[in-house]
Write a structure and sequence with these properties.
The chain has six helices and 15 strands. It is of the alpha+beta class.
């Protein structure tokens, strides 16, 4: 183990030693899943070394159930940590959310590289056969909804401007393949998946291939800060409902902006 990783796990061992209890992770049963209150990795993670020498993070819930995550099994996160001068500090700054999804797998959202509330995110699936992960958006993870078949996920990310205007992107994840699903329409993807352009106050699945979203009923030329701020302040907000179809063939290894 190199010196950076030794320092990381020494810092984690000290952090764990001074914590009197494990921060609870609350599971929301409603269809509309708000993101649970974030907790730092030092609240929920102990460190150790597997027999193979791999760095291990042990996630422990309030019920005492533990899950071991090998950092090398999460390539994007490992790649990020290897570039940091103080890995221990970066691990402690990492936030963790356990998503309440039905099934035998456990889904954990890692939020790291955070600044001004915006974080890089990785969705991790832990199962008996191993760990798989997929990189999601950089932003403020807000909430999610499961598809009718419970095998797809819609995740909403916010992008705050001065705390007054929040624009959103909405992306879909294939929970079986652990890949991002592109929109069928590249034009709609540009505005609602890749570029935070408008607030998205509501969204819902139609079926396993389509979903609708509510968005601001303004012209594209009116996407400036002041126009959206005035819309948010209005008591008569004009809303338009947009139907999005998902691409049935293509899958992306990670969320990437064009």
């Amino acid at each position: 183990m190199n010196d950076k990783w030794k320092g990381a796990f020494l810092a984690l061992a000290i952090a764990v030693a001074i914590i009197s209890g494990v921060t609870a992770v609350y599971f929301l049963m409603a269809n509309y899943k708000e993101a649970p209150t974030s907790v730092t990795m030092s609240d929920l993670v102990q460190s150790g070394t597997a027999d193979s020498g791999s760095e291990i993070l042990t996630v422990e819930g309030e019920n005492g159930e533990k899950v071991d995550l090998t950092i090398s099994d999460i390539p994007l996160y490992k790649e990020y940590l290897d570039l940091q001068d103080d890995i221990g500090n970066e691990v402690e700054r990492t936030q963790l959310e356990v998503l309440d999804l039905a099934g035998q797998e456990r889904f954990i959202l890692l939020k790291y590289n955070c600044g001004n509330k915006h974080c890089s995110t990785i969705l991790v699936k832990e199962r008996e056969s191993g760990v798989v992960s997929v990189g999601l958006a950089d932003g403020i993870f807000q909430d999610y909804k499961l598809s009718p078949n419970k095998d797809l996920l819609l995740a909403r990310f916010g992008y705050s401007e001065g705390g007054q205007v929040v624009r959103h992107v909405l992306l879909a994840v294939d929970l079986v393949q652990m890949k991002v699903i592109p929109y069928e329409s590249t034009e709609l993807a540009e505005v609602f998946m890749h570029t935070p352009t408008w607030p998205i106050p509501d969204y819902e699945w139609i079926d396993n291939n389509q979903f609708w979203m509510a968005s601001v009923d303004l012209q594209s030329s009116e996407a400036e800060f002041e126009a959206i701020q005035n819309w948010l302040a209005s008591s008569e907000r004009k809303i338009k409902k947009i139907t999005i179809s998902l691409n049935q063939k293509d899958r992306l290894g990670a969320y990437l902006t064009p």
